[in-house]
Amino acid sequence: MTDVVTDPLTTLAASFPSDFVFGAATAAYQVEGAVREDGRTPSIWDAFSHEPGRVANGDTGDVAVDHYHRMTSDVELMSDLGLGAYRFSISWPRLQPGGSGPVNTKGLAFYDRLVDTLLDRGVAPWATLYHWDLPVELEEAGGWPARDTAERFAEYAGIVADALGDRLHGLITLNEPWCSAFLGYGNGIHAPGRTDGAAALAASHHLLLGHGLAAQAIRAAAPETPLGITLNLYPTSPALPEGYDGPDRAAYDDAVRRVDGLCNRWFLDPVFGRGYPADVVEDVRPTSSLEFVHDGDTELIAAPLDFLGVNYYTRHMVAPGAYPGTASVEFRKRGWPTTAMGWEVDPDGLYDVVRRVHDEYPALPIYLTENGAAYEDVVSADGQVHDVERLAYLKSHLEAMARLAADDVAVAGYFAWSLVDNFEWAEGYAKRFGLVHVDYDTQLRTPKDSARWYASLMAAHRSGILGA
Ligand code: FCB
Fold first, then answer.
1. Choice from 49, 174, 311 to test ligand 1 binding pocket (greatest atom count within 8 A of CB)
2. How many helices (H) and strands (E) does the chain have?
3. For residues 434 and 419, is the Cβ–Cβ distance under 8 A?
4. Which of 72, 149, 197, 463 lies at a C-alpha separation of 20 to 30 Å from 407?
5. Helices within 100-236 (DSSP H only)
6. Distance (Å, whole) CA 165 – CA 167
7. Domain 7-467 classified CATH 3.20.20.80?
8. How many angstroms does the Cα of residue 177 sit away from the middle of ligand 1?
9. Separation of 296 CA from ligand 1 center, angstroms?
10. Could you give the CA distance from residue 421 to residue 440 in angstroms, rounded to a whole number?
11. Over the stretch 213-245, which tens digit does the pLDDT of each residue have?
12. Residues near 151 by Cβ (< 8 Å), separated by ≥ 6?
C-alpha cells in the first residue's frame, strides 16, 4: 500500500476538478487610475466620486493603484502567484469615449496588451464589459432608466467582442446589475447617486435588456467566446431561531420572499427565460407598472449563456419591517464575526446560494466570479501583512466550493476579490480587499499571507493534475 498524502492543503486542492479555474478579480475604475489619459472620458464614477460627501474621505479613482501604468508588472505578480485566470473589467469610456461612436484606438491598445501579456504569462483573461462605469454622456441622456442605453451597451459589447473575443476565456456582460440599478438609482449610495424607485426598476430592466442585446452582438462577433453574466446573489433567511414556528412566522417568511424576490429572482428568472417573477411584479406595483417592458424583451433577456457568474459575500437575515401593514423589511445581524464591511462571515451561505441556483434553475456551469473580505490590515515590522482572518475567510469559502463540487454541483471556477487593495466604491481606499497589499503612497505591492496561501493551493492543484 502506498502512503496517502494527508496534508490539508493537498486534500483541499484535490477536491476540485482538474479543469477548475482559480483566479482573482478587479474592476477598471477600482484599479486603473489614468482617468484623463489617452482619450478616456469621464464615467459616472468620476463625476460621483468628485462630488463632496459621496465617497468616504473624499477618495476618487483618479490614481487608484495606477494599474494602467503598472500593467506589465501586475501581470508578472499574477503569474508569480500562479493565478490561472484574471478577471478584469473594461472601462467603457476608455474604449468608446462618450459611450457612442468609434473605438478609441489607444484605449483598445491597453486592453489588447493586457490580454496578450496575460496569455504570454499563462494567465487566462476574463473580461467584464460593465463594472459600473457608464460614460457620463449616457447618464446625461437618461442613464440606465432610458432604453437607449441598452442599445448603446450592445454596440460597445460588439466592439469589444470583435477586438478581443478570440483571446478571451470568458466574457461577462454585466457585473451585479442589482447594484447598478438599486444602489445607483434607488438609494443613491453608488453613482450616479439618484434616489428614485421607479427609475431604479427601469434601470434594472434596461440593464437586463442591455445584457440580452449585448449577448446577440457578442455571438455575432465572437461566436466561440464563453459568455455569461455575473449576479450578486444572497441566500436569504428569516432572522428567527432555527425551527421557530410562532404566530409571526408567516410575516418573516414574507419578508424573506420579498428580499429574495428583488435581489435574486428579479434577475435570475428573466435571465433563465422565466420572465419577471409575478409576486415581485405585484410587490413593486405601487412604485412602477413596468410600462418599460416591451413585447419581445423577455425573449431577448433570455439569451443562451455558457456560464453563470455568482458573486457571494454574505447572507441576508431579514425580518418584517417596523411598520406593520407596509412592505418594509429589516436586515438583521446574528452577532457573528464580521469583516471590516460589517458583513457576517458565513461560508455555508456560499454553499446554499449556489446549491439553490443548481437545484432551481437550468444547469449551467457556475463560476464564483467574486468572493473575499476586507479587514483592517497591518504591515508588520517584517514588512509583511499577516492577514490571518482573510486567509481563514478564503479557506472556509473554498472549502464550501469543494463541498459543492463533491455534491456534483457544476462549479467551474473561483475568483478571489480582489487581486490587490483598491478603490472600494463609496468606502474609498479605507476598505482593503486585496490578496496583495498596496501602499498608496508608493504603490508598492506586497502579497499578504492570504495570497501566499492561495498560491500554495493553486500550486498543489496544478501538481495534482500533473501527477495524476
Ligand atoms: C462587489 C463589487 C466589487 C467589490 C466588492 C467588494 O459588489 O462587484 O467591485 O467592490 O463588491
1. 311
2. 17, 13
3. yes
4. 463
5. 105-120, 136-140, 148-164, 177-178, 197-221
6. 5
7. yes
8. 12
9. 32
10. 9
11. 999 999 999 999 999 999 999 999 999 999 999
12. 210, 213
Question: 49-64: per-residue pLDDT in tens?
Answer: 999 999 999 999 999 9
Residues constituting the chain = 468
Question: Which residues 6+ apart lie within 8 Å of 257 measured at CB?
Answer: 279
C-alpha grid cell, residue 123: 494567465
Indicate the residue type of 252.
Y
Place of cell 479555474: 21
Domain boundaries, given as residue ranges, for the chain? 7-467
* Radius of gyration for the chain, computed over Cα atoms and rounded to the nearest angstrom: 22
Atom 9 in ligand 1: residue holding the nearest Cα:
27
Question: Which tens digits make up the pLDDT trace of 80-133?
Answer: 999 999 999 999 999 999 999 999 999 999 999 999 999 999 999 999 999 999
Q: Is the minimum distance from the CB of 133 to ligand 1 under 6 angstroms? A: no
Residue 370 annotated as catalytic: yes
Provide the 10 A C-beta neighbour count for residue 1. 3
